[in-house]
Amino acid sequence: MAGMRLDELRALLDRHARPDWTTAIDGVHISKIDRSEPPELSMTGMVLAVIAQGTKRLALGDRIYEYGAGQYLVASVDLPVTGQFLQANPEHPALGVGLTLEPSVVAELLLQAGPGDLPRDGGGAASGIVVSDTPAELIDAVIRLVRLLDEPRDRAVLAPLVKREILWRVITGEQGATVRQLGLADSSLSHVSRAVRWIREHYAQPFKVEDVAKLSGMSVSAFYRNFHAVTAMSPIQFQKQIRLQEARLLLATHPGDVTGVSHRVGYDNLSQFSREYRRQFGLPPSQDATRLRHTPASLVP
After folding, report:
1. How far is the C-alpha of 281 from the C-alpha of 247, rounded, in Å?
2. What is the CA radius of gyration of the chain?
3. Where in the chain is the domain with CATH 2.60.120.280?
4. Pick from 278, 279, 243: which is nearest to 262 by CA?
5. Helix (H, G, I), strand (E, B) or coil at 56
6. What is the pLDDT of residues 140-194, one digit of tens each?
7. In terms of Cα–Cα distance, which of 274, 209, 271 is closest to 239?
8. In the chain, which segments carry CATH 1.10.10.60?
9. What is the pTM of this model?
10. Which architecture does CATH list for 237-299?
């Protein structure tokens, strides 16, 4: 039965996939990857992703996540990851569907839950990325959501309802603790998310960890512990990942200005920038910029 449901989901995703991954339903994205590319650095977004065919591998700091057909991933924070689809080809493309997670909707569902409907959560922050097998009722709800792409008359009314059902299934499921923290204003995850957001917005400037901990409303020791639990990185390592990712995006449009790009993302030392860039992407900045210039825009992360 589960195999038949996955077959139906595969067929729907294959038919509705677009090159830009968008759909007519807000916050719903369909991916169809027909070749395995080298690992690429990208941001996860806050998302629930269900794989119907193929396998994806993600590296977050020192953690490796691998999930395939019939499994789902939750990213509760927008995190820099290195990812790739494995063994994808035109005859057997990787197929998946993603749903953007909205903390306000999670908070609404938590408020509507009755006494005893939700398990008790621990006090600490969970990992920002978790993977699980997709239960039958969650696959069924995802199928009904994607089917609405064929039903424009019903989409506006029913899509928000089915998205709420999907969120409820995840909130009450195996990885619910991670998603529930999204809707709690004073959770450890929300404190870390505040720090993540600040670092992303000010990635080019140096900072003291003590100051970011204070901004997050946590002691320094609790901040270090919870930040690493969520991101698998220290705050300084996280900043470096964001800097290198932004540098690569800038080099794609300014390939001849390696020095200028390194300064724009916060590096004072060009040799350090080149060394860390090469370690991250496998090529020196100038060579990688040349490669990016000859890469189709749809394949640049």
Report:
1. 11
2. 20
3. 2-182
4. 243
5. strand
6. 999 999 999 999 999 999 999 999 999 999 999 988 888 888 888 778 888 899 9
7. 209
8. 237-299
9. 0.84
10. Orthogonal Bundle (1.10)
